[in-house]
Amino acid sequence: EISTEEQVLFDRLIQIFEGLNNSVNIYIVGGWVRDKLMNKASSDIDVMVQGLHNLESLNEYLLDNPHLVEERRYINKKENALKPFDVLWIRLLGFDLDITTPKYLQGSANISDDAFARDLTINSLYYNIRTKETLDYTNQGIPDLSNRMLRTPLEPKITFSRDPVRILRVIRFVCTKFDAEENGFTVVPDIYTSFEDPSLLEQLEIVSRSRISHELEQIVTSENCEIGVQILARYNFFYYIFNNITGSSHSDLQNPWNYRFNQEAAESFSEAVKRLSDLSGNLDRGSVLYSSLFLPIWFREDNTDIFTKFLMREVWLLRKAVVNDIHTYLNGAQVIYNWGVALDNNQILSRDDTGYFLYTNKQSKWEVMFMLADIGSMLLGKDKSFMSSVYNYLVSIGQLETNYIWDLKVLLSGKYLYSLGVRGKEIGNWIQRIIRWQIINPQGTKEDCEVWIQSELPNDT
């Protein structure tokens, strides 16, 4: 069902092309048609024009007639981070439109050829804005949409070889929920069979990392992300994705994503998904799940700090804030796991060290770190009592019975320390020592702390 706003938009598009070339056929193709047939709202409007000599001519026409559209931008395929073909982007009546000509073909080619050159049958559906017809040139798009099936218009290897990122897009569709009561799509067996062909997956090694990272982010942050990661692991995708490091600062780094790491990454990820609802605080779900994905390598490999920063920033192209969160979580998980090792060896933990760690990592962060440490201990073959000993120890010394650690207010200020002659960076160092004193002396008063610090300060301060 076409909304009033959409119909006005389509009428304006027809008027624009009438001024340029009245013989062209104008289609809305792909996601918008698919979503409309599923009775879903859609803002994903891709326009495919048949009969246009090239996109440059339309771009020049709009450049000469700037009143026709609100904005426009020509993006050639070398500049296009997400699509391997030229696109003319315009904003019209508040809508963002991507305009293309038939893929892999000349503009005058048969439109059915374009349909078979697309990624999936459900995305090979066309809506003719002049005749108001929905067209299914593969004769499988509408049935597959009704049956929630993912199928390539041609043999999978042919379709995927034309653009290897389509492989990841299929997985993204599998774990995308289009309705609260529906699961994602089911993949036809031929597609999974094609994933077993190393010569096909190797093509991911030469694809733009920005395109790969975009699809990975969509998979990891989707509602059914667990299914997507299991598929990535089962067919060793992480190995081929990691191999896409040509021209990076660590292009000689050995690829650690072997079969074991693939399976452990999926196991760690699945366990984190199950436990997400138990975590408190306003957490970035993606940062937590990415942390669980990198956890097996972090807990097992040497030089993990260098490697994971490289993996996250240069291969997966994660945002700096996300990378920082992941590193905080993984570093913290390693600290907590090491506490478990110490207790397992009958060593005594420092009360102020554990307390200061909790103080600097507020409750929501602590919960993520403990969860990751627990998952990591499972991957390393420890039983459930291993991490329980850490939790029970912190309870036994009173650091988890109440929120006094997380609610702790520093008794003495920097201004007070300055009055005692403390200067520069030493003020921060002494604030840390004050916090540790309060952790060891939870009943201590401000006056008690003043007596202590004056006895600790050097005489010449």
Strands ordered across the widest β-sheet = 3-4-5-2-1-6-7
Mean pLDDT: 86
Helicity range of the residues?
40-55%
Main sheet record: 7 strands, mixed
Q: What integer value in Å does the Rg equal?
A: 29 Å
- What is the count of DSSP helices, taking H or I runs of 4+ residues? 22
Q: Tell me the strand percentage band.
A: 5-15%
Structural class: alpha+beta
In one word, what is the shape? elongated
Describe the structure.
The chain is α+β, with helices and mostly antiparallel strands and 461 residues long. It has helices at residues 4-20, 31-37, 55-64, 111-116, 141-146, 156-162, 165-174, 189-195, 198-201, 209-220, 225-234, 237-242, 259-275, 285-300, 304-315, 320-344, 351-360, 363-379, 385-396, 414-419, 425-440, 446-456, and strands spanning 25-29, 45-50, 71-75, 87-92, 95-100, 125-128, 133-136, 149-150, 186-187. The strands form 2 sheets. A 7-stranded mixed β-sheet has the order 3-4-5-2-1-6-7. Strands 8-9 form a two-stranded parallel ribbon. Strand 4 (87-92) and strand 5 form a beta hairpin.
Walk me through the topology.
Elements: H1 4-20, E1 25-29, H2 31-37, E2 45-50, H3 55-64, E3 71-75, E4 87-92, E5 95-100, H4 111-116, E6 125-128, E7 133-136, H5 141-146, E8 149-150, H6 156-162, H7 165-174, E9 186-187, H8 189-195, H9 198-201, H10 209-220, H11 225-234, H12 237-242, H13 259-275, H14 285-300, H15 304-315, H16 320-344, H17 351-360, H18 363-379, H19 385-396, H20 414-419, H21 425-440, H22 446-456
